[in-house]
Write a structure and sequence with these properties.
Length: about 240
């Protein structure tokens, strides 16, 4: 059902959805596509790039520097609206690559603007989602610049957990996670060897285990205290715009 889809659940944490908004979300889902891991669906430098609403799977947005180094900017989960900047900007400023096979609905610039004109409340919700993504990037910048590696790692994992819980894919016991140590390293400005050592330290402290594609919270509250994790920047505690 559209009203219980990850995207609808996500934006419903900001605005209560009425029949008009639910129908508009359904219209945005028309062009559902599948993408294989490793094959970009948004390409840095392209013009007239579409946006995508994630329905299933994991992806990440990244930039490649002239020396070939990769910086992962954010990880994407079901419910995320990918490539909105690529629709609004003349040229896409980043890439998006699937980590797993993903299903996503392609949304053109025309689709997006028509939807916004018909349903201003939904447009406001999408603006909220984009602002929330910006808030996450700010936290990632603070993490890379100021948090020690163990706290930085714990903070990112807790952020993913909170985001997944909103769309029904995680809870305080843990979540399924396809990320590798290479993904985490490129997101946090660390080496894979350093990430491995940090994860081992956190596990040996009895707070969290990340093994075999599963994050398990052994002591969730201690991990929150350790990372100084305050989830208010994710702004998902209930609708701010009501009917």
């Amino acid at each position: 059902m559209v009203h219980n889809s990850p995207f609808a659940r996500k934006i419903a944490s900001y605005v209560q959805l009425g029949e008009i908004e639910i129908q508009s979300v359904s219209d945005l889902y028309r062009r559902r596509r599948k993408f294989a891991p490793g094959l970009d669906l948004v390409h840095q430098g392209e013009i007239d790039q579409s946006a995508f609403i994630m329905a299933d799977g994991w992806a990440f947005s990244y930039k490649i520097l002239s020396d070939g180094a990769r910086q992962i900017v954010n990880f994407h989960i079901p419910g995320d609206f990918l490539g909105v900047r690529s629709v609004l900007f003349r040229t896409s400023d980043h890439n998006v690559e699937p980590i797993t096979q993903i299903e996503a609905s392609e949304v053109s610039k025309t689709d997006l603007f028509q939807t916004f004109s018909k349903t201003p409340r939904l447009a406001t919700a999408v603006l909220w989602a984009a602002s929330r993504d910006e808030a996450m990037v700010v936290e990632h910048l603070v993490g890379v610049g100021q948090r020690p590696a163990p706290e930085r790692t714990a903070h990112l994992i807790l952020e993913l957990s909170t985001r997944l819980k909103l769309v029904g894919l995680g809870d305080k016991t843990g979540f399924t996670c396809p990320l590798t140590q290479y993904h985490l390293a490129d997101a946090m400005g660390l080496t894979p060897v350093h990430v491995n050592r940090v994860l081992r330290e956190i596990r040996e402290a009895g707070m969290m285990t990340f093994q075999n594609g599963r994050v398990t919270f052994d002591d969730y509250e201690s991990l929150v205290d350790f990372a100084d994790f305050d989830r208010t920047y994710l702004d998902q505690d209930g609708p701010a715009l009501k009917m």
